[in-house]
């Protein structure tokens, strides 16, 4: 797959590595997001890259010495009793500055818990002849190493990069498909480069689903479990929570009831899933995160959402080689599923954008009562930075709509909002296709949204 984006990340890493002073860089993030590929692109021929595994510490030291020997002749001819002696010898043998990269660093720490303290000692001495990069997919452990004020490496890093999933414009660049097709593809594969790479192995979207997700031999059939193992002790609870949310159980009280646990006991597990980027807490526009009881929990990653909505509930059929049957069900529901991610993409695109001379803040949805007898929902609301305007939007992932009628109905609803008084209302439509009445004012189509997200 063609390497795209990560320009800012490469620039920041190269800036540290170009310094004559030894630098310490920490790179972490969810598995499959391209951390290793990114690092290999910034390393030079003379640099040392080592991918750790789950072997015992003496074996890891021996394997690392062999890797170093490809750049430092006969380095592996000595048996190193511990990590400190290896680092000291490397310093003594180097004549020119290099970069030393330890990938999957959590595996090394698992077999040698003293390693972070040894690295701290080396950094504090300030005598290293190499830049050091540590990288890992265990987000919780990596964050603990650098964010926890009691950790040995706290405050030592010159650069900390959390590698996140990529944005939708780069998926379109990779797949070379239409904007409408890109939104549908993104609602399944999300922003994870490895999933894009697997998608490219098949010509048709449906074939990619059947091959990788709706087959007992599919390479992604156990993907969430692999991700959870990196960061969680209780994978079963996380699995169950995402399964519930993926199938329409969004309120804390409902999740707790299904798990037969008190709501208070779920605060920690939910916060961890939020921190790791798997779920998010959604609030109506204008609500305070600390005080509101109106929040919904939703899966924040498209791939995980698709998996827990369609794959996990049908695992028994998939294991019986009934993937075609599951695929038929998914095709019938796919448009409705994609519509949620279309709404989310539209909110992301509007946030921080300038429209009709106003710059808008974070866009959210809103739901609530506007009178004793009337309850309304609005897909997208954003207030201008100066507080003078309110953009309200309706997002539709359907084949044909009458835009002029929809805009009139939307503006009528918006005028009833309790926080709309005295503000200029800017109604907008976010549609899958051009409207049947050819109305064009304040209409946004998939290509517009993807361009805004670049």
What does this structure look like?
This protein is of the alpha/beta class. It has 3 domains: 7-162, 3-Layer(aba) Sandwich (Rossmann fold), CATH 3.40.50; 169-332, Arc Repressor Mutant, subunit A (Orthogonal Bundle), CATH 1.10.10; 348-452, Trna Endonuclease, Chain: A, domain 1 (3-Layer(aba) Sandwich), CATH 3.40.1350. Helix content is 45%, strand content 16%. It is built from 20 helices and 14 strands. The chain has helices at residues 7-17, 35-42, 57-69, 83-93, 105-111, 115-125, 139-147, 168-175, 179-189, 193-199, 205-212, 223-231, 235-246, 252-259, 267-275, 302-311, 315-319, 323-350, 403-414, 446-452, and strands spanning 24-28, 48-51, 98-103, 130-136, 159-162, 279-282, 296-299, 354-355, 358-359, 364-369, 375-383, 389-396, 424-431, 443-444. The strands form 4 sheets. A 5-stranded parallel sheet has the order 2-3-4-1-5, with helices on both faces. It has a 5-stranded mixed sheet with strand order 10-11-12-13-14, with helices on both faces. Strand 8 and strand 9 (358-359) form a beta hairpin. Helix 1 crosses helix 2. The longest helix has 28 residues, at 323-350. It is elongated, with a radius of gyration of 25 Å. It starts with 6 loop residues before the first helix and ends with a helix.
């Amino acid at each position: 797959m063609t390497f795209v984006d990560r320009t800012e990340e490469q620039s920041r890493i190269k800036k540290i590595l170009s310094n004559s002073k030894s630098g310490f860089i920490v790179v972490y993030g969810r598995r499959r997001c391209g951390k290793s590929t990114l690092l290999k692109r910034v390393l030079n021929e003379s640099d040392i890259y080592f991918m750790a595994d789950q072997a015992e510490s003496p074996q890891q030291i021996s394997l690392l010495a062999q890797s170093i020997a490809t750049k430092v002749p006969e380095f592996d001819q000595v048996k190193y009793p511990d990590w400190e002696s290896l680092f000291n010898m490397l310093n003594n043998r180097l004549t020119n500055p290099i970069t030393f990269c330890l990938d999957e660093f959590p595996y090394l720490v698992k077999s040698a818990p003293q390693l972070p303290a040894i690295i701290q000692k080396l950094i504090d001495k300030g005598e290293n002849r190499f830049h050091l990069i540590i990288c890992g997919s265990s987000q919780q452990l990596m964050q603990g190493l650098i964010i926890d004020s009691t950790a040995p490496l706290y405050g030592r890093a010159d650069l900390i990069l959390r590698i996140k999933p990529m944005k939708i414009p780069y998926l379109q660049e990779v797949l070379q498909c239409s904007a409408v097709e890109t939104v549908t593809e993104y609602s399944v594969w999300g922003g994870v480069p490895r999933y894009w790479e697997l998608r490219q192995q098949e010509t048709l979207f449906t074939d990619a689903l059947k091959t990788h997700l709706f087959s007992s031999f599919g390479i992604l059939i156990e993907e969430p479990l692999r991700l959870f193992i990196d960061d969680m002790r209780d994978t079963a609870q996380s699995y169950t929570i995402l399964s519930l949310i993926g199938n329409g159980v969004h309120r804390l009280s409902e999740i707790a009831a299904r798990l037969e646990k008190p709501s208070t006991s779920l605060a920690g597990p939910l916060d961890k899933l939020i921190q790791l980027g798997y779920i998010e807490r959604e609030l109506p526009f204008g609500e305070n995160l600390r005080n509101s009881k109106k929040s919904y929990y939703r899966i924040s990653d498209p791939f995980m959402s698709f998996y827990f909505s369609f794959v996990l509930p049908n695992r028994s059929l998939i294991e019986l080689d009934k993937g075609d049957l599951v695929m038929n069900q998914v095709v019938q529901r796919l448009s409705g599923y994609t519509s949620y991610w279309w709404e989310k993409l539209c909110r992301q695109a509007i946030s921080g954008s300038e429209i009709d001379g106003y710059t808008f803040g974070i866009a959210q949805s809103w739901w609530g009562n506007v009178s004793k007898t009337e309850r309304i929902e609005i897909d997208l609301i954003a207030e201008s930075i100066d507080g003078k305007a309110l953009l309200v939007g309706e997002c539709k992932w359907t084949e044909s709509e009458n835009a002029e009628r929809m805009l009139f109905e939307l503006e009528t609803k918006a005028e009833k909002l309790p926080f709309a008084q005295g503000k200029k209302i800017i109604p907008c439509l976010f549609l899958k296709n051009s409207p049947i009445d050819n109305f064009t004012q304040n209409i946004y189509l998939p290509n517009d949204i993807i361009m805004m997200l670049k």
